[in-house]
Amino acid sequence: MFLAADIGNSNIVLALHDGKEWSHKYRYETKDYQPELFYETGVRDILLEWGISASDIKGAAVSSVVPEVTDRIMEALVNNIRFVPVLLSPELFINLDMRIPKVYEIGSDLVSNAYAVREIYKQNCIVVDFGTALTFTVYDHDVGITGVTIAPGLKTIISTLSDSTSLLPEIDIDMPDSAIGKSTSTAIRAGVLFGFIGMVKEILGRIKSELDDTYKIIATGGLSSVIKELNSEYDDIDKNLTLDGIRLLAQEEIG
Description:
CATH architecture of the largest domain: 2-Layer Sandwich
Oligomer: single chain
Mean pLDDT: 91
Largest sheet: 5 strands, mixed
CATH topology of the largest domain: Nucleotidyltransferase, domain 5
Order of helices and strands: EEEHEHEHHEEEHHEEH
């Protein structure tokens, strides 16, 4: 079995691959950084809940865009599975047979997405990742990553609006029936959600207009299937894309 840890700005995801599929997943918020013992105990409890012995785990890897948590998760995993997981890093990326611009700046989640589409789809792809940030990674199958576009994610927009305006409440991510709000809540939802749809379509349209070839559009991330109005923009929705990239990159490193 293979254990992946995907440390993002909003969530830490632990997932277990049984050789055929991702059989177990656990997600919790990243924002409150905890001591290493907290994560060590958490990993132990998760494995116990899953009914998985640490000795069953033969491979592991960590992707992180939150340096403050990386070492703590690495230590927590080592103390549970008794070997050092592969840490996705610029040193690993440099040796890949795939172009990666700004290798010391790009997030390991974006590299994981690109490597996953390289191995799974084997064609030109634009990966739209709905996370804390909304990212568009352009992957050319003959070259590698040719560029990335980054915008605020949906939850980031909602939280920023709520935090910056004392009288505006947090809202649920449910599409309103009208673009004209009849209450504070529906007004925010209309502005944010219809605006977000427009942003995704506009960015995708502009990216495609600058490309000379055909690209498959792959959506991923926790909110990738929430806004149904955007589904027609994608060729596929693959929520496990980042996890698959982490697993495939670890296999590349281990050999």
